Amino acid sequence: MKGSFPVDRFEQLRTPFYYYDMELLRATLDAIRQEVRKHDGFVVHYAVKANANPKLLSAIRQAGLGADCVSGGEIEASLRAGFPAGKIVYAGVGKSDWEINLGLDNDIFCFNVESIPELEVINQLAGAKGKTAHVAFRLNPNVGAHTHANITTGLAENKFGIAMRDMDSVIEKAEQLTNIKFVGLHFHIGSQILDMGDFQALCNRINDLQDQLERHHIRVEHINVGGGLGIDYQHPNRVPIPDFKAYFDTYAKRLKLRPGQTLHFELGRAVVAQCGSLIARTLYIKEGAMKKFCIVDAGFTDLIRPALYQAYHKIENISSDEPTEPYDVVGPICESTDVFGKQVDLNRSQRGNLIAIRSAGAYGEIMASSYNCRPLPQGITSDDIN
Ligand SMILES: *Cc1c(COP(=O)(O)O)cnc(C)c1O
């Protein structure tokens, strides 16, 4: 046992694999529940795209969260995990007909609509089934999150959402369509946001918008502010659970909800990132001209965040207690970007040692690919092996 890892049990498993600490996941879900309970009308959905491992989905569903889906496949995964259809929301700029029909057949809570052409198709498909689709409009609030450029979504230049200036005409259009019921407004400004000021800016924008809508006598049943709360990648041990209190308090204090309105959240990363680690085995220590490489059996096919976003993950040798040395930790894929970390201080490493790449529970296993004909990594939970 080193840290919280059952290293002895890991020795029997084929690497690489994802390990999920279910105790931490349940503690995280408890922390969310405790904060949400304090605020009337707050409803939390889990953004399934962060990780759709069935064991995690099941724990999240048991904690009472809804599911935020961005594809038909995610709707199916959520239904299989037991999420009630009435707690499923469905967003995405490119919903295909079968995906819309799947949502209609199951009477999901809400479609988050991103354009007028999409609204017209949903109206038509709902009409063919004699149903009324509940829709919220995803608005692009033109609020920038101070995060990596590839993961901001709320700027005017991004493909997401409907521009604020088009809002009135879109709502007017919805009211003319017979198989559409307009129920809410949806926003999502980005991911890995740690500055509560970004969420405050979103609140201010929504307050202005609600005032504007009220002048036109338009009432909205619910507001959905998306997700985006970040986690501490530097300190997974010291800060295993994000500051949900600060997050929910920001909305409670800044957003002026109207009587009877519900406020929906779609948290992904903040729910699952810290409970997951990618466990790999050291294949070779290679002495380069300038530095040492620790070559492991996991690559960007297993965890693409460092290659895709230059993302930082804390890396530990969980088999060694020897003094630390700097290593470039790299994978076996035939691409120069297949690097998990440069000049990482690891306990002196040798062939066979297990390496933990921390905070990998979100956008890890779910983004794995089989490039180089590599098998997909397995997901193993602490419940499975304890
Ligand atoms: C990705 C996404 C989320 C979740 O984002 P996190 O940063 O993981 O919390 C929520 N809502 C929508 C619409 C998304 O696309």
Compose a concise summary of this entry:
The protein has twelve helices and 17 strands. It is α/β, with parallel strands linked by helices. The strands form two sheets. Strands 1, 11, 12, 13, 14, 15, 16 and 17 form an eight-stranded mixed sheet that branches. An eight-stranded parallel β-barrel has the order 2-3-4-5-6-8-9-10, surrounded by four helices.
Give a description of the structure.
The chain is α/β, with parallel strands linked by helices and 386 residues long. It has helices spanning 7-10, 22-36, 54-62, 72-80, 97-105, 116-128, 167-176, 196-215, 244-254, 269-272, 305-309, 382-385; strands at 17-20, 42-47, 66-69, 88-90, 110-113, 133-140, 162-163, 180-186, 222-224, 262-267, 276-287, 292-296, 315-317, 324-330, 339-347, 354-357, 378-381. The structure holds pyridoxal-5'-phosphate. Residues 47, 49-50, 68, 70, 91, 188, 191, 226-229, 266-270, 362 line the site of pyridoxal-5'-phosphate (PLP). Pyridoxal-5'-phosphate binds at residues 47, 49-50, 68, 70, 91, 188, 191, 226-229, 266-270, 362.
Structural class: alpha/beta
- Count of helices? 12
How can the largest sheet be summarized? 8 strands, mixed
- Average pLDDT level: 94
Q: Segments where pLDDT lies below 50 for 5+ residues? A: none
Order of helices and strands: HEHEHEHEHEHEEHEHEHEHEEHEEEEEH
Output the radius of gyration.
22 Å
What's the layout of helices and strands?
Layout: H1 7-10, E1 17-20, H2 22-36, E2 42-47, H3 54-62, E3 66-69, H4 72-80, E4 88-90, H5 97-105, E5 110-113, H6 116-128, E6 133-140, E7 162-163, H7 167-176, E8 180-186, H8 196-215, E9 222-224, H9 244-254, E10 262-267, H10 269-272, E11 276-287, E12 292-296, H11 305-309, E13 315-317, E14 324-330, E15 339-347, E16 354-357, E17 378-381, H12 382-385
Parallel strand pairs: 1-17, 2-3, 2-10, 3-4, 4-5, 5-6, 6-7, 6-8, 8-9, 9-10, 12-14
Antiparallel strand pairs: 1-11, 11-12, 11-16, 13-16, 14-15
Helix pairs in contact: 2-9, 5-6, 8-9
The structure holds pyridoxal-5'-phosphate.
Pyridoxal-5'-phosphate binds at residues 47, 49-50, 68, 70, 91, 188, 191, 226-229, 266-270, 362.
